[in-house]
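Sharing a chain and its predicted structure for anyone who wants a worked example. Both blocks are below, sequence first, tokens second.
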Amino acid sequence: AWHRASAGIPRHLADRVVGRTRVALFTCLVAFETPLPVSQGAFAVADDDLWFAARTASKPGLRQLATPAGGEAPAAEGPAYRDCWTLVSTPKYAAAEVARVPMQDPVTGKFRPQDMGYLTEGPCQVLLEAFRKSLQAS
């Protein structure tokens, strides 16, 4: 069956995953001008919308963005530096969002790509708000 995650994938590759369970997720990269006061490099969230958050500087191969002492607070600051986080939705949120905003034209069946306005004002805003709430709760 058609799925937006398959849009544009060559048929010979798509055929290799037929029958596998697919779990929809939304991800969003957010950047803060100053480092957030968070000691963990990544954490799971007990929320209906946000599942997981990871600081870019804590990812393998990107430790040079962390302090020389090995802490999680980035050493670099200023206009060129941003404290970046990847936010991952829950499968429940993503499934509801996929159902709410269909990405397949109901007449032609063609893929309707997500535009930047939808992504920044839709899922990204929801995930960012859940992230902010999780930080306030900790």
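Comments welcome. Residues 67-74 have pLDDT under 50 and may be disordered.
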